[in-house]
Amino acid sequence: MKLTKYHAAGNDFLIGKYEPGIDYSVLATKLCNRHLGVGADGLIIVTEKPWSLVIYNNDGTLANIYSNGMLCVAKYLSENNANHDWFSINFADKEIQVEITKKSPFSSRINLGKVEFSNEYTKVKSTVKPFFNQEILTVQGPIHIDTVYIGAVHTIVWVSTLEKALESELAKDICNNPIFVERPHVNFVKLIDDNNILVRTYDKVKGWILSCGTGAAAAYIVGKTKGKIDEKVRVHLEYGRLDFFMNEDNIIMEGTATKIAEIKY
């Protein structure tokens, strides 16, 4: 089996075409292991005509969505007989629209759809609906948070200094707050100016990660809703950047992906 490894802003994925008779859940745990395998955040299996995806986490479980993974898929398809700049990808129960905006250096736009604010999606136990711009008690005292759903539950915390926030136990404490039925990913966000923000994401399973596309999207929509940022915004991550804007009610993410290696297994 031939696989190709890509990364987008530090999120890395192994991508290959579907072949029958393979237990891809087991394959994901083997190949994505960073000590005993190739190493990756996930394994993405692509089926042709119509294009469809199954995404496995590195522990073999099925993933809801990886928006940075979608950038990697766009790069993969642009290199493997997708001879046009627009295409649709079926993933789970969604149809995701992808546009290749530049071949070299590569960039693409992904339509991430609509963000959900309701407690039905964010799984917050509260009479406050939606749970937006609310205060919870943490190890550092009362903290204002905003919680939204975009493929996963994300909580946004605006901070003045990222370094101190990253060194604290605050993200872990918020993630495990009993108000959440489903633990959220926690995103610390620092405002640079009207068109630029810094985002660092605490994954509810992995802890601090290099980047998270849906976390960046959540930070963008929260900032826009609260009037902190403009319509078009660049999100700066530890190993890259993502650009966001709105198309009607849909969030559009634009970014790049880089090919790392080709693998025969």
CATH topology of the largest domain: Diaminopimelate Epimerase, Chain A, domain 1
Compute the CA-based radius of gyration. 18 Å
Give the ordered list of helices and strands.
EEHEEHEEEHEEEHHEEEHEEEE
CATH class of the largest domain: Alpha Beta
Number of helices: 6
The N- and C-terminal alpha carbons lie at a distance of 5 Å
Annotated CATH homologous superfamily of the largest domain: Diaminopimelate Epimerase, Chain A, domain 1
Percentage of residues in DSSP E strands: 35-45%
Oligomeric composition of the shown chains: single chain
Number of individual domains = 2
Mean pLDDT: 94
Can you tell me about this structure?
The longest helix has 13 residues, at about 65-80. This protein has two domains: about 1-115 and about 255-265, Roll (Diaminopimelate Epimerase, Chain A, domain 1), CATH 3.10.310.10; about 120-245, Roll (Diaminopimelate Epimerase, Chain A, domain 1). Strand 12 (about 195-205) and strand 13 (about 205-210) form a beta hairpin. It has a 17-stranded mixed β-sheet that branches. It has six helices and 17 strands. Helices cover about 20% and strands about 45% of the residues. The chain has helices spanning about 25-30, 65-80, 120, 160-165, 170-175, 215-225, and strands spanning about 1-10, 10-15, 40-45, 50-55, 85-90, 95-105, 105-115, 135-140, 140-150, 155-160, 185-195, 195-205, 205-210, 235, 240-245, 250-255, 260-265. The protein starts with a strand and ends with a strand. By secondary structure, the protein is an alpha+beta fold.
